[in-house]
Amino acid sequence: SQRTLVLLKPDAVRRGLIGEIIGRIEAKAGWTISALELRTLDQATLEQHYGEHRGKPFYEPLVGFMASGPVVAMIVEGERVIEGVRRLAGPTDPIEAAPGSIRGDFGTIVRENLIHASDSEESAIREMKIFFPEA
Ligand code: GTP
Ligand code: MG
C-alpha cells in the first residue's frame, strides 16, 4: 500500500474542521493514520515544503498563511491513498471543487483551501521526510 503526507492548513484548524476532515479520511475502508502532530510551521520547513513554488506571485502570501497558526500534519496509509486523498480534497481552487469534496464543501479562496496532500509517490517520500523524519 501507499503512504501520503497530509496537512490540515491553519484555516481548517481555526475553523474547527479537524474532526470533520479527519472523519472523512478515516471513513475510507482500509486507510489508517500512522503519524499525527499539531504544530506551527517555521519558515525553513515551509521553504522546503513549498520550494517548487518559490518565485511565483502567490508564494510569499502562501508561506505567510501557512505560518499563521498551527497545522495538523499526518501520514495516511492505504491502497491508492495518494490519489485518493487528492480526490477527497478536490481541485486547488475551491470554486472548481464539487460539493462532496473537502474544498468544495468548505473552501472559498484558493490560498485558504484547507488541506494539502502529496501529489505523487515522489512528493510523498520527500514531504514525509520533512515532517516526520523518524518515520
Ligand atoms: P497543496 O496540496 O497545498 O500543494 O495544493 P495543490 O497541490 O492543490 O496546489 P499547488 O501545489 O499547485 O499550490 C500550493 C498551494 O498554493 C495551493 O494549495 C494554494 O493554497 C496556493 N496556490 C496555488 N495556486 C495559487 C494561485 O494561483 N493563487 C493563489 N493565491 N494561491 C495559489
Ligand atoms: Mg501541491
Automatic annotation (TrEMBL):
The question of whether Transferase is a record keyword is answered with: yes
Which EC number(s) does UniProt give? Answer: 2.7.4.6
NCBIfam families cross-referenced by the UniProt entry: PRK00668.1
Q: Which family does it belong to?
A: Belongs to the NDK family.
Principal localisation: cytoplasm
Residue positions annotated to bind ATP are: 9, 58, 86, 92, 103, 113
- Which GO molecular function annotations are given, in alphabetical order? nucleoside diphosphate kinase activity
Name its species: Streptomyces zhihengii
Q: What is this protein called?
A: Nucleoside diphosphate kinase
Job description of the protein: Major role in the synthesis of nucleoside triphosphates other than ATP. The ATP gamma phosphate is transferred to the NDP beta phosphate via a ping-pong mechanism, using a phosphorylated active-site intermediate.
Which compartment or compartments is the protein found in? Cytoplasm
Known partners and oligomeric status: Homotetramer.
Indicate the residues that form the catalytic site: 116 (pros-phosphohistidine intermediate)
List the keywords (alphabetical). ATP-binding, Cytoplasm, Kinase, Magnesium, Metal-binding, Nucleotide metabolism, Nucleotide-binding, Phosphoprotein, Transferase
Which InterPro entries would you find in this protein's record?
NDK-like_dom, NDK-like_dom_sf, Nucleoside_diP_kinase, Nucleoside_diP_kinase_AS
Name what cofactor the protein needs.
Mg(2+)
Enzyme category, top tier: transferase
Nucleoside diphosphate kinase-like domain residues? 1-135
Q: Which residues form the signal peptide?
A: none
Q: Which reaction does it catalyse?
A: a 2'-deoxyribonucleoside 5'-diphosphate + ATP = a 2'-deoxyribonucleoside 5'-triphosphate + ADP; a ribonucleoside 5'-diphosphate + ATP = a ribonucleoside 5'-triphosphate + ADP
Q: Which Pfam family name is an example for this entry? A: NDK
